[in-house]
Amino acid sequence: MKPSLQLKGIALGAIASCAAFTLVFAVSKMFQPSSAAMHSVGDAPLPPAGGLLASQGYALFKLNCAHCHGLDARGDEGPDLHGVTKSDARIAFLIKNGSKGEMPKFGAKLSDADVRALIAFVRSLRD
Amino acid sequence: MNINVFWARMHGGATHFPFALLLVSVAFDVVGFWWRNELRAREFTAIGFYSLLIAAAVSPFAVLSGIALSKGTLMGSGALALHHLFIWPTFGLLIGLAVWRLVVRGGASRRAFGCYLALANITAVTMMAAGFWGGELILGN
What we know:
Chain A is an all-alpha fold. In chain A, 63% of the residues lie in helices and 0% in strands. Chain A contains 6 helices and no strands. Helix content of chain B is 86%, strand content 0%. Chain B is built from 4 helices and no strands. The A-B interface holds A 1-3, 5-6, 8-10, 12-17, 20-21, 23-25, 27-33, 63, 66-68, 70-71, 76-77, 97-98, 100-101, 104-109 and B 1-2, 4-5, 7-8, 60, 63-64, 67-74, 76-80, 88, 91-93, 95-104, 107-109, 112, 137-141.
């Protein structure tokens, strides 16, 4: 009696885990930005200036930075990025290494090219 | 409030319930497993059982808010990838173990419960690793 109950438990546990992962997969699809939305990032009026590099930067910004700086970069938990006066090197350092307790580091996530694109986006922001 | 900030706060709040409850569950189950007084041992494992059930019940909220926060990213890169590398096995094991306990209740043999405890300990360790890398995403220097 006991072993069959335990085996039944294992089978149901495995089924529940599979069901949970199926749900996770389905839910993740719901939250992924649509390809149309991703394309529209490049076509969007934001950033108004700065060219292709800034547009690429905006796409990265939406995925990595907008959580805190807001979709319009006007700030939320993080500061407003319009009219930033820091040097490119300082911005790159902050993106890569973060600021403890204030901003996460993105050095492992973003390449140098990504960081350059983000800086181009930040520079394109106008008050 | 920005929707991303909302999900970040929800994730921060939701993750700590299953985290703490799983650790409590494992601790009480281990104590119950070794305790000599059978009545007291059952009480300890009952605490472990209900803590595990609640941990499994609230874990989907933590997962859902995390998925929303990462915009549907199931793996990602860097610290996010490491966070996911540990959290997905943890989530699967947590749900599976809770269902097993729910089905078996008090009918598990000592050997089977020992195997369960080993897996529950592994789940607790992977959850701590996931928590560490989740923290690194926010506070890493």
